Amino acid sequence: MGIKGLWKILADAAETRNLLQYTVQESFKNSGTECRPIIMGIDASIWMYQASNAIKFSNAQPGPNPQLRLLFYRTAALPALPARSVFVFDGPHRPEFKRGTRVLTHGHWLTSAFRELIPDAELGRLASEGIMDVVQTTDSDILLFGAPTVSLIPKKKDDHHDVAVYTAENIFVAPTVSLTRGGLLRKAGRGTGR
Known about the structure:
- It is a single chain.
- By secondary structure, the protein is an alpha/beta fold.
- About 35% of the residues lie in helices and about 20% in strands.
- A hairpin with a 2-residue loop joins strand 4 (about 95-100) and strand 5 (about 100).
- It is globular and about 45 Å long.
């Protein structure tokens, strides 16, 4: 769902990194001298939302099944990363509104074969328990659910190699941010910008 204005508040804590470079460095960091692929949780509903909107606002002639093709190319790029990707999808109890937009009560046509999970809470829990090393999403509320490291999915098509990486440590030590998880919860409770 996201918390309005939170990414802006946390901007000074972000570190822009090349996704391949980031996953390689983190793979070695997590295991010392051996390379252990990191486990990257991906908010699949964001990928589907972006695929649907990329085609909607495009002036190009997309051809047949443009949304599926975009998802295919994104997914096909993942094996090049030293990371295990875990996709988490929206479950049956989605909120009525997300990012100021009314959410359809029936499932997205791309999700018919997927499990019923609530991605933000589940991804946050898996990351906070150390089951995942990084969560890739655009929903800022993932930080409230305890994800210690978040890779912000780029919004622009030409930025697909670079990601903004937010860590709980950077959010706490960045002088202009300096927030703990409790501080993030208070910001969310007050409506962020206040």
